[in-house]
């Protein structure tokens, strides 16, 4: 079963009333994080993953998403915090990455099954919380140190009550060079329709 994310706007600069932008909040190792909802296409309940040999250690495997093999990365491993333990609320956030290295512009790349340029990537998290709106005044600059993950992974710190939520910079967390290497490592044809089934049968 999938849960559709809120409708996407025309670009990352889109805002709602009061210049607020919407972010999907989630937890990882008990800590709160947020992603700009513009990059998110849908949210899935955790499902079994097919392990693909010769991929980076933060890649937990691939899922068959409507006939396409979508790699799923473990953010905890990416942040050097150990592997995510699978539990009842474990979720996979599907993020769309536009452009690949050497493409010459941000719109080039592979074409997904629904005709969009780019690559879908699954992000494994402990639990999805809710969509929240933050204004520019709610978000402080990313700290140079002390957040527990690489500073370039953070776009800012959103204030909520008496705490902060780490707002991730998805373009750095899922760097295009890493994702291009990942897509290359998938079994031949896995990025096309029906390729996921071939990948699953061959593993």
Automatic annotation (TrEMBL):
Gene3D superfamilies: CheA-289, Domain 4 (2.40.50.180), SH3 Domains (2.30.30.40)
Residue stretches in coiled coil: none
A family per Pfam: CheW
InterPro entries: CheW, CheW-like_dom_sf, CheW-lke_dom
Stretches assigned to the CheW-like domain: 20-179
Annotated SUPFAM superfamilies: CheW-like
Family annotation (SMART domains): CheW
Protein's UniProt name: Chemotaxis protein CheW
Taxonomic source organism: Dactylosporangium maewongense
């Amino acid at each position: 079963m999938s849960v559709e994310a809120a409708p996407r706007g025309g670009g990352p600069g889109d805002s709602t009333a009061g210049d607020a932008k919407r972010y999907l909040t989630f937890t990882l190792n008990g800590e709160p994080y947020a992603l700009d909802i513009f990059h998110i296409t849908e949210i899935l309940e955790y499902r079994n993953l097919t392990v693909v040999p010769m991929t980076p250690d933060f890649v937990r495997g691939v899922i068959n998403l409507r006939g396409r093999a979508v790699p799923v990365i473990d953010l905890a491993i990416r942040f050097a915090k150990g592997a995510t333990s699978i539990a009842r609320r474990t979720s996979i956030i599907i993020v769309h990455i536009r452009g690949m290295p050497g493409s010459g512009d941000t719109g080039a790349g592979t074409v997904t099954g629904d005709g969009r340029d780019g690559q879908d990537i699954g992000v494994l998290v402990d639990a999805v919380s809710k969509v929240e709106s933050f204004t520019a005044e709610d978000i402080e600059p990313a700290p140079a140190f002390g957040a527990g993950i690489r500073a370039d992974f953070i776009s800012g710190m959103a204030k909520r009550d008496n705490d902060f939520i780490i707002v991730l910079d998805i373009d750095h967390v899922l760097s295009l060079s890493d994702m291009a290497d990942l897509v290359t490592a998938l079994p031949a044809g896995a990025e096309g329709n029906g390729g996921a089934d071939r990948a699953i049968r061959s593993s």
